[in-house]
Amino acid sequence: GAKQVTLDAFFGPR
Amino acid sequence: ARLPRSAVLKKILDSVKDLVKETNWDCNEEGMSMQALDTGRIVLVEVMLREAAFESYACEVPMTLGIDMEPFGKVLRCAGGDEKVTIKASRNDQDHIELVFENEEKERMSAFELKLMDIDGEHMAVPDAEWGAEISMPSSEFKKIVMDLAEIGSDLTIAVSKLGVTFTAQGNNCKGSMVLQPSTAVDKKSEQVAISFTEPLEMTFAAPYMKMITKAAALSSTVTLSLDEACPICVRYEMEDNAGHIKYYLAPKED
Predict the structure, then answer these.
(1) What is the complex's ipTM, to 2 decimals?
(2) d(CA B71, CA B67)
(3) Strand (E) or helix (H) holding B240
(4) Which end of chain B is more exposed for a tag (fewer CB within 10 A), N or C?
């Protein structure tokens, strides 16, 4: 099935 | 900070406690807010309680309150849903906060102290996305769809096209999909389904996380789903009278 991605692939640290 | 009823705070806690064990609450003149990641870094939850949510609110100096959700939940469970809640944080001794619950007619008052923690919570920068699609619908309907389809399969696919919005779940021995069309027939705003999209899209998410997210339905009768194939989904619950919101960003599953 599809693989879970984490938010680190989209959001950087502020 | 004084809330007219503890119910809102109880509901907020219920909406985040499965995802976040401890978090910093940032207090400033605007209100109280928190942003936290789950341990798997798959969902980010943001809560904003604006001054409008409070019967009275004063914040002379911005403060960050490190709260452990477990004891906070235990203290809040001692408050009746209709009891007034006052939270006090002193700038002099920042090692605890005081919570006072008052039940007007019964002349009952209870006071608690909660130790504060030193949490080095990292804040994530969430860029403002131009969303490919936005769906607003009754939060109870979204909750039922997610809970039902989560029983069918662990992946929840959300597709937006001119057909409407299609929720699909695929399991080993069964598959199910539910299509919602924009509803203009109903007049009550909170019952309407509205869909806007720039181009058709389809994304897949982990149903167990989406289930946890739908617990926030208690805070708002409507939910807004914002999707874009380049971003995590944003599931937003706006509270009435500009009192604030709870927003979740859930990372997708990709082939």
Answers:
(1) 0.94
(2) 9
(3) none
(4) C
For residue B18, what are the contacts with CB-CB under 8 A and spacing of at least 6? B212, B215
Q: Extract the residue ranges of chain B whose pLDDT is less than 70.
A: none
Give CA–CA dist B232/B252, Å, rounded.
Answer: 6
CA distance A9 to chain B (A): 9
| Total residue count of chain A as it appears in this document | 14
Tokens of B154: 């662990």
Q: Compute the residue count for chain B.
A: 255
Digit-coded pLDDT (tens) for B123-179: 899 988 889 999 999 999 999 999 999 999 999 999 999 999 999 999 889 999 999
- Pick from B187, B185, B186, B166: which is nearest to B177 by CA? B166
Q: Is A13's pLDDT higher than 90? A: no
Tell me, what's the pLDDT at B52? Answer: 94
Pick the residue of A6, A10, A14 with the most B CBs within 10 A to test the interface with B by mutation. Answer: A10
Residue for token digits 């936005």?
B134
Q: Is B219 exposed, middle or buried (0-12, 13-18, 19+ CB in 10 A)?
A: buried
Residues B182 and B124: beta-carbon distance below 8 Å: no
Cβ-Cβ contacts under 8 Å, B247 against chain A:
none
Pick from B41, B125, B251: CB nearest A14: B125
How far does the CA of residue A11 sit from the closest CA of chain B (Å)? 6
Inter-chain residue contact A14 with B249, CB threshold 8 Å: no
Kindly determine whether residue B232 and residue A7, on different chains, have CB atoms separated by under 8 Å. yes
3-state SS, residue B146: helix
Indicate yes or no: CB of A7 within 8 angstroms of CB of B42: yes
Structure tokens at B43: 């969902």
